[in-house]
Design goal:
This protein is of the alpha/beta class. The chain is built from 14 helices and 23 strands. It binds NADP nicotinamide-adenine-dinucleotide phosphate and magnesium ion.
C-alpha cells in the first residue's frame, strides 16, 4: 500500500491545509493500492505564492545553472526509472514492459530533449532595428491526465523549468504515484525552493483554482475537450495564456500500394497499445474499398492475437484505467452494435477468463465515418475500419472530424504519402512509422492549441519582448 499524503511546496513536504484523503484503485485488481491527499484552494494559494517568490530568482538564472539542474534530475531519474515504471503499471494498468519501457522512457526522452534544446536555444535575436528577447512567462499551472502520466508531466515540467518559469503541478487523481516519485526526484536533484511545486487532488478544485488564480500567468493542460473548454473560461478573467492538448480521432490511411496485411496488423496492434488510451491513436483505419475484405480479415487476425490480462505478466494489453472508463467504452461498443456497424472482433464484456479488473476486449468494427464510433473519441481499445474510394475521398474522410491531432499514412510511394500528409488537417502525421522527440506535438481544431515536445514546447512558456532602437 502506498501512502502519498503530503504535497511538495517550497522545497518542503507538507500536509494539506485541511486534511482529506482519497483511495487509489489498482485497475487490474479493483483493490485499493494506496492513499493520496486531496488539496484545497488554500494549498493552491500556498504553492502559487512559493512559485511567485521563486520566479524572481529563477527567471534570472543562467542557462548553465538550468542545464546543471536538468542533468542532476536526469541522473536521479535514471536511478528511479524502474520504480516509476512500476508505479505507472500500478496506477493505470499499463503492462509492466510498457510501464518500465516506453511509459517511463518517454519521460527520460523529454528530459534529454529539454537539455538538447536548452543547449542551443536562442533566447535573444537581433532582427534589423529590434532585439527579440524571449523571457519566461512566469508562474505556470500544469494540469495532466492519467493515460501516459509521465509523458504528460515531463513534457510540461522540464520545458517550464528550462525556460526559467516556476510551476505548480496537479497530477491526475487516477494516476498520482509516478508524479509523486518525480517530485521526489526533483527534490533530490536540488531544485531550488518554489521552482517546482506539486499538489494532488481533484481537478474541479485544484485545477480550477490554478486556472482562475490571479498570480498564475499560464496554464498548460492535457486532457479532455470539455475540461479544456472549462479551463479556458476559468482563465479568461485573468487573461492567462492557456495551452491545450485535447483528444483526437486520428485517421490511419493505408494506400493501395502498401502491404495490406502487414500494415493492418501494425495499425490494429498500435490501437491496442496502452489499451487504446492514447490521444494520438490511429483509431480510424482507412483502406481502399477494393481491399476492405482483405483488411477486415487481417484486422480480425491481429485483434485475436492481442493478449489481455494481468499487467505484471507478459501481455500486450492490461486493463483500462477505471470503472468509469470501462463503462464509457462498453457504452460505445453497444452504440456500435446498435447503429449497425459490423463487429469484426471483440465486443461487449470482459475477455474470457477474466472476472475482475477493468479489462476490455480488443475490438474492431467496420463502419462508415458518420457512425458515432467513428466520430467520438472512445479512448479504449476499439478500432474502426472505413473504406475509401480514391485519395480525395480518403482525405475527405480523414478531415471530416472535429479533431485534428494526429494522422498516419502507410504506402510504398513516398511522394504520394507525403502529399496526402500535407492535406491532412492535423498537428502531426506519421508516414510509414517513425518517431522524433524534437517533432512538435499538438492539435488543430478541437484537439487543442499550442505545441509541446522539443523546441516548440519551449515557446509555450516564453513571452516575446521587442527592444527597438
Ligand atoms: P480530464 O478529465 O480532462 O482530466 C485531465 C486533468 O484535468 C486531470 O488532472 C483532472 O483532474 C483535471 N481536471 C478535471 N476537471 C478540471 C477542471 N474543472 N479544471 C481544471 N482541471 C480539471 O481527462 P482524462 O479523463 O484524465 O484524460 C482523457 C482525455 O485526455 C482524453 O480525451 C484524451 O484524448 C485527452 N488527452 C489528450 C492528450 C494530448 O496530448 N492531446 C494527451 C493525453 C490525453 P482529476 O484528477 O480530478 O480527474
Ligand atoms: Mg476525467
Amino acid at each position: 500500500m502506498r501512502s502519498y499524503t503530503q504535497f511538495y511546496i517550497d522545497r518542503k513536504w507538507v500536509d494539506p491545509v485541511t486534511p482529506a484523503t482519497a483511495d487509489v484503485i489498482n485497475p487490474a485488481t479493483e483493490d485499493v493500492s494506496g492513499t493520496i491527499s486531496l488539496g484545497s484552494v488554500a494549498d493552491v494559494d500556498k504553492a502559487v505564492a512559493a512559485a511567485r517568490k521563486a520566479f524572481g530568482v529563477w527567471s534570472q538564472s543562467s542557462v548553465a545553472e538550468r542545464l546543471e539542474l536538468l542533468r542532476g534530475i536526469q541522473a536521479e531519474y535514471a536511478n528511479r526509472m524502474q520504480e516509476m515504471g512500476e508505479a505507472v503499471t500500478e496506477e493505470m494498468g499499463a503492462p509492466i514492459a510498457l510501464g518500465c519501457g516506453f511509459q517511463a522512457g518517454l519521460g527520460a526522452g523529454h528530459l534529454q530533449t529539454a537539455i538538447e534544446v536548452l543547449e542551443n536555444f536562442k533566447f535573444e535575436e537581433q532582427k534589423g532595428a529590434h532585439l527579440i528577447v524571449r523571457e519566461p512567462i512566469g508562474v505556470c499551472g500544469l494540469i495532466t491526465p492519467w493515460n501516459w502520466p509521465l509523458n504528460q508531466v515531463t513534457v510540461k515540467v522540464f520545458p517550464a523549468l528550462a525556460t526559467g518559469c516556476t510551476s505548480v503541478l496537479k497530477p491526475p487523481q487516477l494516476a498520482p504515484y509516478s508524479a509523486q516519485i518525480l517530485a521526489e526526484i526533483m527534490h533530490k536533484a536540488g531544485t531550488p525552493a518554489g521552482v517546482f511545486n506539486m499538489i494532488q487532488g481533484q481537478g474541479s478544485v485544484i485545477g480550477s483554482a490554478l486556472s482562475k488564480h490571479a498570480d498564475v500567468d499560464m496554464v498548460s493542460f492535457t486532457g479532455s475537450e470539455p475540461v479544456g473548454i472549462q479551463i479556458s473560461k476559468d482563465a479568461a478573467d485573468t487573461v492567462k495564456r492557456v495551452g491545450l492538448e485535447l483528444g483526437g480521432k486520428s485517421a490511419w490511411i493505408i494506400l493501395d500500394d502498401a502491404d495490406m496485411a502487414g500494415n493492418v496488423a501494425a495499425a490494429t496492434g498500435g490501437m491496442m497499445v496502452n489499451a487504446g488510451q492514447t490521444c494520438s491513436a490511429g483509431s480510424r483505419l482507412l483502406v481502399p474499398r477494393s481491399r476492405l475484405d482483405e483488411a477486415v480479415a487481417a484486422a480480425k487476425a491481429a485483434c485475436e492475437g492481442v493478449s489481455v490480462g494481468d499487467p505484471h505478466s507478459d501481455v500486450a494489453m492490461g486493463p483500462v484505467v477505471s470503472k468509469s472508463q470501462w463503462n464509457i467504452i462498453q457504452g460505445y461498443i453497444q452504440k456500435g452494435l446498435d447503429e449497425g456497424a459490423t463487429l469484426v472482433s471483440g465486443g461487449l464484456g470482459r475477455p474470457d477468463g477474466l472476472s475482475r479488473g477493468y479489462f476490455v476486449k480488443p475490438t474492431v468494427f467496420a463502419c462508415t465515418n458518420d457512425a458515432v464510433i467513428a466520430r467520438e473519441e472512445i479512448f479504449g481499445p476499439v478500432l474502426v475500419i472505413i473504406a475509401y474510394d480514391d485519395l480525395d475521398h480518403a482525405v475527405e474522410i480523414a478531415n471530416d472530424s472535429v479533431f485534428g491531432l494526429g494522422g498516419y499514412v502507410s504506402g510504398q510511394n513516398r511522394d504520394t504519402a507525403i502529399a496526402l500528409a500535407r492535406r491532412m488537417r492535423t498537428g502531426a502525421v506519421w508516414v510509414n512509422g517513425g518517431f522524433d522527440f524534437h517533432a512538435p506535438f499538438g492539435g488543430y481544431k478541437h484537439s487543442g492549441n499550442g505545441r509541446e515536445w522539443g523546441e516548440a514546447g519551449f515557446h509555450e512558456y516564453l513571452e516575446i519582448k521587442s527592444i527597438i532602437g
